[in-house]
Automatic annotation (TrEMBL):
UniProt domain Ada DNA repair metal-binding: residue ranges: 29-74
The keyword Membrane is assigned to this record: no
Listed Pfam families: Ada_Zn_binding (PF02805)
Gene3D superfamilies: DNA Methylphosphotriester Repair Domain
GO BP terms: DNA repair; regulation of DNA-templated transcription
UniProt KW Metal-binding keyword: no
UniProt protein name: Metal-binding protein
Keyword annotations: Activator
Molecular function via GO: DNA binding; methyltransferase activity; zinc ion binding
SUPFAM superfamilies: Ada DNA repair protein, N-terminal domain (N-Ada 10)
InterPro entries attached to this UniProt entry: Ada-like_dom_sf, Ada_DNA_repair_Zn-bd
Length: 87
């Protein structure tokens, strides 16, 4: 798990580091550490969160092992499966 705020000191440095990690395939999912939700990097809900709450994951397994649940907007099938397991 990588914290967005720790990717660099300036907005430019964070954006450059984030781009490189994405292109290299080292991160594929983003999460909200306050809500414990993760989703795709393209999710509209995820783009609105505060940078201080944003974390990144290499895969879904890493996110689930950290206690995060799938996003109900961009990962509907995974969210439905997660919801069924919570009963």
């Amino acid at each position: 798990m990588l914290l967005h705020s720790e990717l660099g000191g300036t907005r430019y440095e964070r954006a450059k580091c984030l781009w490189k990690l994405t292109v290299d395939g080292k991160i594929k999912y983003a999460g909200n550490k306050a809500l414990k939700i993760y989703g795709s990097l393209q999710c509209k809900s995820g783009r609105r969160m505060k940078m201080t709450n944003r974390v990144f994951f290499a895969d879904q397994e890493e996110a689930r092992n950290a206690g995060y649940r799938p996003c109900g907007h961009c990962m509907k099938k995974d969210y439905q499966q997660w919801k069924l397991l919570q009963r």
